[in-house]
Amino acid sequence: MTNYVIETKSLTKTYEGIVPVYAVRGADVTIEDNEFTAIIGPSGSGKTTLLNMIGGLDRPTSGSVKVNGHELTGKTDSELIDFRLKHIGFVFQSYNLIPVLTAKENTEFIMLLQKIPKAQRDARVEQLLGEVGLADKMDKRPTELSGGQQQRVAVARALASKPDFVLADEPTANLDSASASNLLDIMARLNKEEGITFIFSTHDQRVIDRARRVITLEDGVVVRDERR
Amino acid sequence: MLLRLAYRNIWRNKRRTAITLMSVFFAVILSTLMMSMKEGMYARMMDSMIGAYSGFVQVQSAEYLPDRSLDDALMMSDGIDSSIMSTRHVTGWVPRIESFALAASDETTKGAMVVGIDPVAEKDHTDMAARVSDGAYLEPDDKAVLLGSGLAKKLGLAVGDTIVLIGMGYQGSTATGKYPVKGLVKFGSPELSKQLVILPLKEAQWFFGAEGMCTNIVVLMDNSDRSTKIVSDLSGSLPTGLVAHDWEVLMPDLKHMIETDRKEGYVFMFILYMVISFGIFGTMLMMLAERMHEFGVLVAVGMKRWRLAAVFWLEVVMLALLGSILGMIGALPVVSWFYYFPITFGEGEEFTKMFEEYGMEPVMQSTVDIGVFATQALVVAAITSVIALYPMMRLLRMKAIVAMRS
Predict the structure, then answer these.
(1) Which chain A positions have a beta carbon within 8 Å of B314's beta carbon?
(2) Which residue in chain A is spatially nearest to B295 when comparing CA positions?
(3) Are B12 and B76 in a shared domain?
(4) In b/e form, how buried is each residue of B348-361, taking b as 16+ CB within 10 angstroms?
(5) Is there a contact between B174 and B168 (Cβ–Cβ < 8 Å)?
(6) Given A52, A100, A109, which is nearest B401 (Cβ)?
(7) Residues 6 or more apart whose Cβ sits within 8 Å of residue B348
């Protein structure tokens, strides 16, 4: 029996209103360890909603989400926060670093919440920022970094807690070609060399080209699941 | 790091921080000035009515209050001196005999308080001699009076003129006398200046037919804050039949007036605090709204909401404390100004009449009391911290996904 990192069953999200909006409809998605998966689809197809439900940020209307065998749908908000801290790394479209902290402190922040001892934190921060090519920018604040550099710090932050997988919502959307390419190189290397599982929501062709698996959503329905 | 995060967050939007700091800063200055003026007014009132005349503690016959009748005067004895002087913090005492009488000049007659004092003891222990504004101070064997300046004005008398006193003496005897005015005395309290006729003790005892007696003994101390303790100590040591009272018992009207005025002050302060609170509350909501997305991200990546709320509260508390300290520093010169340069209302002014109606000097002087400064700073800081509870509650209930969409 395969052990899935992520397993969704009949996952549905409906926004109630005068006219109900079916954001995701009956999605059955499984992600295995070490995958490099892109969830694609046009705007409004439900990519981000699906990602949010997998990440425990949004609650499904029906269906289930399991992460490494843990069912998320029954967890309280507080339990979900703890769960995210320990198991899931996030990379957002607009970097979302803490503006008053340096690159080092931003990366360290998650580990601090996890109460990891300082010596371990320092070593891990050095390693991660080195891996994303920012060893010399440790003491820079986000405003002193380019968009690409900020997103690389965001990747380092996402990996700091040694998560089961990283969810990246349109990570290249705000980056120029060179920065996007550089970021994808880093993530691909981390996936290949360290076995980190990445799941992207994107409509950036550069990401799609690098992905080893592409799940296509249309109107909230998984219409294609292609492995390369 | 949470503390560092909170501290740095304060300075990330300098304009917003400046607005919040200014709100707290001016709030502390305004409330400190208001309280300092009020407390200064009370202190001046107590000084002019109690410190300058009646004293903070008196020893009397147990029956003297509430009628204040000469018939309940006490006989002076050696035991009184030893029990008073053996009490801690007592620096001296002065005997007085006092009762009401009619005071007349050629022109008119007015009610007056005739007081017998020991000129030597008063000179040593009180500032009675310094209050002589015209003429000369009394000698123990004088057969002359010092007249309150207000009463002199009412009677149309000046130094060297003659005053006639008619009243009731000890045990219903008739008290009459005719005395030259040796000097005029002026008290801070206009009420006292309008009432007092002061005689040397021996002459007053003769006038009232109460030789060797006095109605009250003013106990002098090194610090008026110790009056309650002194009253308590004296209660155990005074000869039988004598009691000690502090100013609150002696002058219940004054106590009541201060308490009532203080309560009114609290109402004004409450309104002021409310106005301040809404200002600070608005700034806080602004702080919350403009960072909601960021808060959502922090919760999304695993920061507990209570921890986030704690960081926000720390920011607010730091701001409030900083603003309060700056406010205290800012209030010092303002309050000091009104201490060294009090507002004095001129004769005939509306405010003067109002002050005089309450028996007060028409002077508004602040008090430079660190207690008032600290209290106001703490109150404003506490209000700010309490107001921060609302944004904290919102953070505690915040949904990361909703916040991230904002």
Answers:
(1) none
(2) A98
(3) no
(4) eeeebeebbebbbb
(5) yes
(6) A52
(7) none
Give me B189's structure tokens: 């309290």
Domain encompassing residue B232: 63-240
> In chain A, which residue's Cα lies nearest the Cα of B294?
A96
Residue B265: what pLDDT?
Answer: 87
Task: Answer yes or no: do B298 and A58 touch at CB < 8 A.
Answer: no
Identify whether residues B184 and B232 lie together within a single domain: yes
Reported ipTM: 0.90
Please state the domain count of chain B. 2
Same domain, B45 and B118: no
Residue A1 lies in a domain: no
| Pairing outcome for strands B363-364 and B343-344 | antiparallel
Pairing of strands B343-344, B74-75: unpaired
3-state secondary structure of B141: coil
Q: What is the nearest CA distance from A113 to chain B, expressed in angstroms?
A: 7
B261 and B226 fall within a common domain: no
- Cα separation, B46 vs B269, in Å, equals 22
To test the contact with chain A by mutation, choose from B287, B291, B301, B318 the residue with the greatest count of A C-beta atoms within 10 A, namely: B301
Residue B86 to residues A150, B83, B94, B231: CA-CA distances in angstroms?
80, 5, 15, 13
Joined together, the tokens standing for residue A5 give: 């990192």
Residue numbers in B near A81 (CB within 8 A): 299, 302-305, 400
Nearest CA in chain B to A160: B301
Residue B305 contacts A, CB cutoff 8 Å: yes
Each of the 406 residues of chain B gets a pLDDT tens digit; together they read 778 888 888 888 888 888 888 888 888 898 899 999 988 988 888 877 787 788 899 999 999 988 889 999 988 887 888 889 988 899 999 999 999 999 999 989 999 999 999 999 998 888 888 889 999 999 999 999 999 999 999 999 999 999 999 999 999 899 999 999 999 998 877 888 899 999 999 999 999 999 999 999 999 988 888 889 999 998 888 888 889 999 888 888 888 888 888 898 889 888 888 888 888 888 888 888 888 999 999 999 999 999 999 999 888 888 888 988 999 999 999 999 999 999 888 877 777 777 776 667 788 889 998 888 888 888 888 888 888 899 999 999 999 989 988 7
Please report the pLDDT score of residue A1 as a whole number.
58
The answer to whether the Cβ–Cβ distance between B307 and A105 falls below 8 Å is: no
Question: Rounded to an integer, what distance in angstroms lies between the CA atom of residue A52 and that of residue B300?
Answer: 10
Answer whether A81 sits within 8 Å of B298, measured CB to CB: no
